[in-house]
Amino acid sequence: MFIAWGADRTLVYNDAYAPMLGERHPRALGRPFFETWPEIQGEVGALMDRVFAGEPVHMEDLQLTLHRNGYPEEAHFAFSYTPVPGDDGAILGLFCACTETTRQVLAERQAASERQRQQALLQQMPGFVAVLRGPGHVFEYVNDAYVVVAGRRDYIGRNVREVFPELVGQGFYELLDQVYATGDPFTARAVPIRFAGEDSDRYLDFLYQPIRGAGGAVTGIFAGGYEVSDQIRSQAALAESESRYRTLFESIDVGFCIIEVTFDDADRAIDYRILEANPAFERQTGADVVGRWVSEFAPDLERHWFDTYGHVARTGEPAHFENKADVFGRWFDVRALRVGDPAARRVAVLFSDISERKRMEEELQVLNTTLEQQVLERTAERDRLWTLSEDMLAVADYEGMMSAVSPAWTRVLGWTEAELLSRPYGTFMHPDDMEPTLDGLARMGKTRRPTRFENRIGAKDGGWKPIEWMVVPEADGTHFIAVGRDLTIVKARETELASAQEALRQAQKMEAVGQLTGGVAHDFNNLLTVIKSSTDLLKRPDLPEERRQRYIGAISDTVARAAKLTGQLLAFARRQALKPEVFDAGRSVLTISDMVGTLSGSRIKIVTNIPDEPCFINADPSQFDTALVNMAVNARDAMDGEGTLTITVHPVSTIPLIRSHPAVLGDFVAVCIEDTGSGIDPERIEHIFEPFFTTKGVGQGTGLGLSQVFGFAKQSGGEIRVQSTVGQGTMFVLYLPRVDAAAPAPKAEPEPLVDGHGTCVLVVEDNVDVGTFATQTLAELGYITVWASDAEEALAELEKDAARFDVVFTDVVMPGMNGIDLAHEIRRRHHDMPVLLASGYSHVLAKNGTYGFELLHKPYSVEQLSRLLRKVATWQKRKRIIGS
Question: Which site in 268, 479, 763, 834 is 20 to 30 Å from 44, CA atoms measured?
Fold first, then answer.
């Protein structure tokens, strides 16, 4: 303790303070404080000023650089300054009670450094290593080799019974308890162990070495060793081969020979000759010895080899031992047994070179005695790695500062070490990455678990580098180690790969277009052949009426098939304008199941599983039924007319990963069609949704059925999944978004006037043939028509006299302004004028629907045209009547 008195801070101290002064004692007594300690005035002066102002000061650790012994040295103190007032309350001096903690602080720092070095050393050991703490054997550390052997688990902070519950009854818990209780190390070889989820034993050579604290008491256990499963299995194979060695003589890897032992008059073995040897003998010993005596090629061979083989030859007792042969410089695991006539004194010897295993055992045994030296060596190696590593290495704290960085930082980013250590590390991060990165580091500080992430770090030249980080918390709870890898080249390669993949997808798309074009031409040529032949026959003047009707019917049926073909093509291309309605998928399946049964035949059993609760979807009912029929027909053909077809409807909350598309969470209805047919080959299953691709024979299918299913699913906001096992069957699952039940439909309006007399139609059609046909057809039905060849001409007609028209009938696909834009413009200018759209193809309609306009699909019949015109025109007439 000391007192600093008066304005000069005169120093008065006791004997316990004198050693802290070093060479400055005793002359410091009675001198001004900062005359004695000039070097600390910057750190301590302000503190004393606060005390003389009446404020006590206390610090647990104050680091100072003192020159008390003639040279600068780091010193640490814990102290408290207490003001000493006079009678009038003025502060006359201060009283300091202090303790120097330099040795304690330096010792703690050295201990932390030693722990880091030891863990770095253990991590690089070739065998597995674990450090356990306390009588409960709590894991403090495991190296990577331990994880390779025992599997990736949550080790640190958990006891061995929690980490390895499957080891109950295998004896390992009891061995650990014994070593901890007795303090005696335990070494074992070839111990079987069975880990969870494995159906066979593995084998370990290991050492349990007690760890003692400063007082000599056991505080933990060091566990280290090697997996020797391969060696044990080799030994087992060797034991089995003893009964069949003649058959395996030339092929086994274990060294094998038959020797003839010779004895002296005292019946003591003095030499033996190699009668036979397999190729492995020479590989394991390095000697070519068949027919030679050991005294010739190994005159210095140890005596115990002769004694052992002599005993086997005399008594017939087999031997199994391990010995080193110095003459060969190797260790051998040897099995010997007498063979043939006992009088011949012959012994069969099987041996394995175990020199490597022995070397590892010796290294493990030496480990504890040489640990400190190896730690020093590994530390030097770590320092070299720190300097030479291409990865950016850093030691940082959770307050935002780095305390050490490797030279790779400068090589990658351009910043100097001083610049990196003088600024918070958050300032080097991209603004968008700073908050999530700092939040992740804070979570790691709480959970004490390593974390991995990517962010962007600013380079000195102003650019941003993508960096992948692996961050591990330090044991002190205040620091962490970060390893960063520059991903600039990796990201560039990923970009190149993505471009290549996109080019591949484009090529595949072009290939599909080629197949589509050929298929369309083939199918339409077939249909046109029927139509052309029928029209040619209809031109014959003497054609009977019965045959005339037959040819007219053939044309009508062929047109219907052509319309269905184009509908399937547009559904596949997602260009078919669907007419979605809200309906119960389960009820629709029940309704169509009878038709599916008729299509499938009597030998196919139809099973339907429909939930009690409705499964409402918003889709085109006709296309939904078509998709079900297409899948059912494929299933029927796959079963060759006999089997079981199961249709199941149920709600699901996820569309799983399909064809590299990620899983989708939501509310969906799954319609599953499963057959017991022949299945689909894996190499074909990726192509089944391509247009005109079929697994059936020539003439047995168009290849468009599953294309329609695919297009309908995608266009309806859903997905289609297929699973198949050759010889067992195939399952298709159609996923569609689930919706709420539709509101009750309003009562239908009374049927309007049914004829076309007096109804004036503005026909907008750019195709002369279609326009001529439409106007002539409408005229025959009693309509008055005005024909406009494009949208501009139609708007001009309406501007002249819109009141004369009851309805506008327009094509969608036209040059210039298309039919949809025209309908919108008519609605804007003449909001009461009804518009009827006609189209066989429109990507706009396919994506966005009909925008509230009525739509007539091409090709259309006269009846369909008349019905829709009456529907839309009648309301306009009624409005006029009501208005008048």
Answer: 479
